[in-house]
Structures are given as C-alpha cells and as structure tokens.
C-alpha cells in the first residue's frame, strides 16, 4: 500500500472507532546470498517500539525526531493499528502485546505484508519474506 503518513492519519481520523498506531522501528543489515547473488537480501532487527493515538497534528517528521532522540540507529518504521470492538480508545498498555508480536514477527522472518512500512524519507516500501529459502 503506497500511502503517505498524513493519509494514514487522515484515514484513521475518519474511522468510527478511535485507533492507536503501533510503531516498530527496525535496523536493516544488507546481506549477499552466495547462492543467489542477483537477489539482494537483508535482515531486520527490531530497535524500539512505541504507540501513538491517531490524532490531528501527528506527523512523520515529529515521529522521526522523537525516535532519533531516543535511538537514531533505525532504518525503517513498520506501522499497524489497534482499535477496540467496544469503540473505546485503546489504552497504551493494551498495545504492549501487539507491539511484542510485531517485533517477534520481524525476528522470526514472518510475513510483514500486513504492516505499512516507511523508510526515513517517508517512502512507502513493501517487504518480502523468504522463509522457504528459495
């Protein structure tokens, strides 16, 4: 999905139920696969997580500045959302297990297609996993 961060916030603001962004910052290590040198490969390592309410004024630049103030050693940001079926605002504590699952998915090389991914320049990216090794 090629969506600017501002579009993501606008879409979230229009939802009937309040949403919280789940945000995972990852570092990318480039690798070369000797069996397939024509195919670049990378490993992703979780660096830090946070959650934010979707609200007016939340910008990608502010997110980057806040993250860099904590730990600038990240390359990509993976984003998902959390809402509650009862229509209430999800508490930050409710995000913790979901953020852990996001990090675990990255570590295990799982499917990342359900996340919106941006690089530091806010360029939307698609990440493909290759657990089958071929």
Count of beta strands: 5
- Biggest sheet architecture: 5 strands, antiparallel
**Coarse shape:** globular
Terminal Cα separation, in Å?
A: 25 Å
Order of helices and strands: HEEHEHEE
How big is the Rg? Answer: 16 Å
Which percent range fits the helix content? Answer: 25-40%
Beta-strand percentage range: 25-35%
Structural class: alpha+beta
Mean pLDDT over the residues: 90
Provide the number of structural domains.
1
- Spans where pLDDT lies below 50 across 5 or more residues: none
Number of helices: 3
Give the spatial strand order of the biggest sheet. Answer: 2-1-3-4-5
Provide a descriptive summary of the structure in words.
With 134 residues, the protein is of the alpha+beta class. It has one domain. The longest helix is centred in the C-terminal third of the chain and has 17 residues, at 92-108. The chain is 28% helix and 30% strand. A hairpin with a 7-residue loop joins β1 (20-32) and β2.
Brief sketch in words of this structure:
The protein is of the alpha+beta class. It is built from 3 helices and 5 strands; from the N terminus they run H-E-E-H-E-H-E-E. The model has no long low-confidence stretch (mean pLDDT 90).
